[in-house]
Write a structure and sequence with these properties.
Elements lengths: L1 H4 L3 H16 L9 H8 L3 H13 L7 H7 L7 H9 L15 H4 L3 H11 L5 H13 L4 H18 L11 H12 L5 H14 L10 H13 L1 H11 L7 H11 L18 H10 L3 H9 L4 H4 L1 E5 L1 H10 L3 H11 L9 H12 L7 H28 L2
């Protein structure tokens, strides 16, 4: 459009004035400045200088400058105007979200991106959050750019940790993908320890990570690749009790196994060093094995073969079956499950499971198996009656 008017300054000014008049008559949340922005982006430097300066000084349109500059590939030349608007409290820092997937950021060199991020970092913590969001979107689908921006991601993540409190939260997907990108490097020891501590410290009754598969993906890599680096802090957190019990409760959601339902059948914890985990249990009896029993898979074949013990559960019985709390915890664990249809086949499979340990060398385990089989027999009879009644 600018090509049609470029030789007539008066017509250019009339078009701009008329466009702004129309924009002013539209409610702020419905305004779309793309047409005018595209016109200005194609115009001469003289027109841009005059227009951007006028908009920045306007009481009504000043914050629209973020939108206009996001469209203009040469918008970087006017960034000072934006920071002046922020510092004078005329606009909010969140206006920089207008730069999401923008032309202006896409034209910046790595050096310019670094300088721009440093200017935003002067506004903690929101500045770090905005940089992370904008730069993650900027590199979407471009693995080379992601690697170049990795140091900036790390700086943001070190500042924000597990951020779930700001008005505009880090998107879980973005956060986990950036973390995964960094922790896939086996040399990132300091960072993985920071992330582990950050997650542990973020757990609360309001944020217990229930069914959070993004954080589980992070811990899958942490435990597979960096087990020795995170285990000291993680194992200590797993022993949290009394007023700090919520820490274990949250970690149970992240690390534990599930029978049926939508959770992981084999908990993320068991991607780690099993022998080291059992050594920890021996060093911290009775609490550690009791806690492990709450997290362990009970059944074989990814917790789906209900007539066979999973090796982890069987090892718990063999090494810690003399601890009453361990057996109680295993009972509670296998009593929490999702099921559809008649539950009788599940109960009959569990009965076969307990028959396998009815002659266990540990007396407490034998007694537990005997009492559990009797309990299951009553459950089977009750469920069969219930099934029969449903067909009447």
């Amino acid at each position: 459009m600018f090509e049609l008017l470029k030789d007539d300054k008066n017509r250019i000014n009339r078009f701009i004035d008329l466009s702004l008049k129309i924009i002013s008559e539209i409610p702020a949340h419905e305004r779309n400045v793309t047409v005018l922005g595209g016109f200005i982006a194609d115009s001469s430097n003289q027109i841009k200088n005059e227009f951007y300066s006028t908009i920045a000084q306007s009481t009504e349109y000043s914050c629209l400058l973020f939108h206009f500059l996001s469209i203009d590939t040469s918008g970087k030349n006017y960034f000072d105007l934006l920071f002046t608007l922020i510092d004078s409290d005329k606009c909010q820092l969140s206006n920089f979200y207008s730069f999401t997937y923008s032309n202006v950021l896409g034209q910046l060199s790595l050096e310019e991106l670094n300088k721009f991020s440093e200017r935003l970092f002067a506004y903690p913590d929101e500045g770090y959050e905005i940089v992370f969001d904008l730069y993650f979107d900027l590199s979407y689908g471009d693995e080379t750019k992601k690697q170049l921006l990795l140091p900036i991601y790390k700086k943001c993540l070190y500042k924000l940790g597990v951020n779930r409190k700001f008005k505009r939260q880090l998107d879980d997907y973005k956060w986990s993908e950036a973390v995964l990108l960094i922790i896939s490097n086996k040399d990132e020891i300091d960072f993985v320890q920071f992330i582990n501590k950050s997650v542990i410290n973020s757990i609360s009754w309001e944020n217990s990570y229930h069914l959070d598969h993004y954080i589980q993906k992070v811990y899958e890599i942490l435990l597979k690749v960096h087990f020795n680096s995170i285990w000291p802090d993680l194992s200590e957190a797993l022993l949290s009790k009394e007023e700090n019990y919520i820490t274990f409760y949250g970690l149970k959601h992240i690390l534990g196994s599930h029978i049926g339902g939508v959770g992981r059948t084999i908990g993320v914890l068991f991607e780690g060093d099993i022998d080291a985990i059992f050594n920890w249990c021996h060093e911290n009896k009775p609490l550690a094995p009791y806690r492990l029993a709450e997290l362990a898979p009970i059944f074989s074949n990814n917790n789906t073969d209900y007539s066979e013990w999973h090796p982890v559960a069987l090892r718990l019985l063999n090494e810690f079956g003399d601890i009453k709390e361990v057996l109680s915890s295993l009972s509670s664990n296998m009593g929490t499950y999702s099921w559809t249809g008649s539950v009788v086949p599940f109960l009959e499979a569990k009965k076969e499971l307990f028959k396998q340990i009815s002659n266990h060398p540990i007396e407490l385990v034998r007694n537990w198996a005997t009492s559990y089989i009797a309990y299951i027999d009553k459950d089977i009879e009750r469920e069969k009656n219930r099934d029969a009644e449903s067909f009447i």
